[in-house]
Design brief:
This protein has five helices and eight strands, in the order ββββββββααααα. It has 180 residues and is α+β, with helices and mostly antiparallel strands. Strands 1-4 form a two-stranded antiparallel sheet. Strands 2-3 form a two-stranded antiparallel ribbon.
């Protein structure tokens, strides 16, 4: 089977094999990007894995719920050699790495709020290392790694209230795929 986790900070509910993400209010013409981390159980190469997709939204003017369905996406398990030879998409690596770093920053802020400054600093350092490894060709990911490294020293002594608020705002903006 497939396990999906949304890396963005949208509200998510799980209902059996369904995952539902609430995108809040979307302005006409606005684009939102959702990044999912998929974990696929081991199996034989070539085995098909169906992934049905459905979008439902409420039209603001009419209040009517509208639905769009895709033809079922079909994933297939690949042999190990094919997986090893696959070249990942750099923009996907960048998006995923930045969102994973935002999740790490969430954890670091929670540790900071609990007074566990060492864990907070360690989580930020780990996220910086992760960015450098996962998206080395991404200027945005490398800049974020530098920012995280700068936050590590501050985290060791605890963040000020103002700094925590600034970090929360920045990461929520990023994780909802909106520009600051």
């Amino acid at each position: 089977g497939i396990t999906a986790n949304l890396l963005n900070s949208f509200e998510v509910t799980h209902d059996g094999s369904r995952l539902q993400a609430r995108l809040d209010d979307v302005i006409a013409g606005e684009t939102r990007t959702l990044v999912f981390k998929l974990a696929i159980s081991a199996g034989s190469g070539g085995t098909a894995l169906p992934l049905p997709l459905k979008l439902a939204y409420r039209h603001v003017e009419t209040g009517e719920t509208r639905t769009a369905m895709s033809s079922e996406a079909l994933l297939a398990r690949a042999p190990a050699a094919e997986v090893a030879a696959e070249m990942p998409d750099g923009s996907v690596l960048e998006d995923a790495a930045l969102l994973e770093a935002a999740l790490a920053r969430d954890e670091a802020l929670r540790a900071d709020a609990a007074g566990d400054y060492a864990t907070s600093a360690a989580r930020l350092a780990s996220a910086s290392h992760y960015l450098r490894q996962m998206a080395p060709a991404s200027p945005a990911a490398q800049q974020e790694a530098l920012t995280l490294e700068g936050e590590v020293a501050t985290a060791a002594g605890g963040f000020t209230s103002r700094k925590r608020k600034e970090m929360h705002y920045d990461q929520n903006t990023r994780r909802q795929s909106r520009e600051k």
